[in-house]
Write a structure and sequence with these properties.
Its EC number is 4.3.1.3. The chain has 19 helices and 9 strands. By secondary structure, it is mainly α. The protein folds into 2 domains: about 190 residues, Fumarase C, Chain B, domain 1; about 300 residues, Up-down Bundle (Fumarase C, Chain A, domain 2).
Length: about 500
């Protein structure tokens, strides 16, 4: 896929995070070359320009002589590589590299084409930097994470390569690549930006979008297990409110339940269902509104110039600004946290309705021998614990700020924390949905699997290959994790179409 600096999408990132290789647009590289020539003129003329001939942050008033400009860039990367904690996944690390290439291709950062070409080499040879997750304030860019991302260019730091974690120098040697020597502005151009929070956000969004689809399918099977009322999903109700995402969710539930012998009509067994069943379109649809907002902001940021300073008019104008500030993504990630947490909240309530004998006519806790065997009793406990944890993680990171760099950088976004917490919530949501699916399949067996709708029956058949029927108590931890792993690897729309 060709990167231009202007046209990268979530769909494109999904492909690039797989096996697709990166190429770069020649016209974009011509812009890069023009920007580089401008930086070289500034150095040669000895002009005072932030980050090129001065120090960084509070050191912006320290003049750097021409002979030390290159050393300045190397010192920058090494001193700022202060990340701690567990590393980001390889997918997030790869996304950071891709996003950094894309933003540099805008031609306003002043780097050499050779630097971009080396970043592309890392992507295409799948040399992925090991980047600790913690340590970014989300303004002045993701300085610590991106410094770790950039270290392998110098032959320093660690990488994942061919399934192993190793020193970057060893991976470069195996690929016949020599470490680069950074020149003026390049260290700053590599680390001043929002690519860590955006990379984490993109990976989180892709998984969240898949979970939103799966939540509809799983909820449809739960409706069958509880003999839910389909009238609540009639088009007239949802058109009367007007939210497109709600209308589409209701239509999807109707489609999934076509041919079901288990769902009921209004007044057949009861007049109306509990909110966790009746309000699926309203809640799931609202979560999709959140996803729409998040996608829009991510796709803007993926193609944004977030460096500082930026060069315009072929370098004739060099402007210091604050595009590195992560507030737009911080807000988007906090919003994503809320939307996804609610998918788990309503799912847990449906689980309760599947296992609580006071709320249904199924065997208590779906137990094969109620009393002697506990069945799915503690599965609901686990779901309740996960949704409670999500409520803590959903506290907005973006409302916090701590001044840094001797108060020069006195307001920060905490956007990377928001993105990391969003991903943690998404992982919890997947486990809650896995529990709901396990319980819904068990309820379907009690009702009669042959009465399921064709679409949900297809998911049931696949799901039973992952988690067998509960015929006696067992250690359910492995069942939950296997089902969650399957959900992460499976697209239910594809499952339905392949039947």
């Amino acid at each position: 896929m060709m990167l231009t600096g202007e046209t990268l999408t979530i769909s494109g990132m999904r492909q690039l995070l797989g096996q697709e290789a990166v190429t770069v647009c020649p016209k974009s590289m011509a812009r890069v070359q023009n920007g580089r020539q401008a930086v070289e003129r500034l150095v040669e003329q000895g002009k005072t320009v932030y980050g090129i001939t001065t120090g960084f942050g509070k050191f912006s008033d320290v003049r750097i002589s021409k002979e030390h400009v290159e050393r300045l860039q190397h010192h920058l990367l090494r001193s700022h590589a202060c990340g701690v904690g567990e590393p980001f996944s390889e997918a997030v690390s790869r996304a950071m590299l891709i996003l950094r290439v894309n933003t540099l291709l805008k031609g306003v950062s002043g780097v050499r084409p050779a630097l971009i070409e080396r970043l592309v080499e890392l992507v295409n040879r799948r040399i992925h930097p090991v980047v600790p997750q913690q340590g970014s304030l989300g303004a002045s860019g993701d300085l610590a994470p991106l410094s770790h991302m950039a270290l392998p260019l110098l032959g320093e730091g660690e990488v994942w390569y061919r399934g192993s974690r190793m020193p970057a120098a060893a991976a470069l040697q195996q690929e016949g690549l020599q470490p680069l020597t950074l020149e003026a502005k390049e260290g700053l151009a590599l680390i001043n930006g929002t690519q860590a929070m955006t990379a984490m956000g993109v990976v989180a969004y892709i998984e969240a979008e898949q979970l939103a689809d799966q939540a509809d399918w799983i909820a449809a099977m739960t409706l069958e297990g509880l003999r839910g009322i389909v009238d609540a999903f009639r088009e007239e109700i949802h058109v009367a409110r007007g939210y497109q995402e709600q209308i589409e969710t209701a239509a999807r539930i109707r489609r999934l339940l076509q041919g079901s012998g288990l769902v009921t009509k209004q007044g057949e067994l009861r007049v109306q269902d509990a909110y966790s069943l009746r309000c699926i379109p309203q809640v799931h649809g609202a979560a999709r509104q959140v996803l729409g907002y998040v996608k829009e902001k991510l796709e803007i940021e993926m193609n944004a110039a977030t460096d500082n300073p930026l060069l315009f008019q072929d370098g004739a104008v060099v402007l210091s600004g604050g595009n590195f500030h992560g507030q737009p993504i911080a807000f988007a990630m906090d919003f994503l946290k809320l939307g996804m947490a609610e998918l788990a909240n309503i799912s847990e309530r449906r689980i309760e309705r599947l296992v609580n004998p006071q709320l249904n006519d199924l065997p208590p806790f779906l137990s094969p021998e109620p009393g002697l065997q506990s069945g799915a009793m503690i599965l609901q406990y686990v779901a309740a614990s996960l949704v409670s944890e999500n409520k803590t993680l959903a506290h907005p990171a973006s409302v916090d700020s701590i001044p840094s760099s001797a108060n020069q950088e006195d307001h920060v976004s905490m956007g990377t924390i928001a993105a990391r917490h969003a991903y943690s919530i998404i992982s919890n949501v997947r486990r809650v949905l896995a529990i709901e699916l396990i319980c819904a399949m068990q309820a379907a067996e009690h009702r009669g699997v042959h009465r399921l709708a064709p679409a949900t029956h297809a998911v049931y058949e696949k799901g039973r290959k992952i988690v067998p029927s509960i015929t006696q108590d067992r250690v359910f931890s492995g069942d939950i994790e296997r089902m969650a792993k399957w959900l992460k690897e499976t697209h239910f729309e594809e499952e339905r179409q392949n039947e």
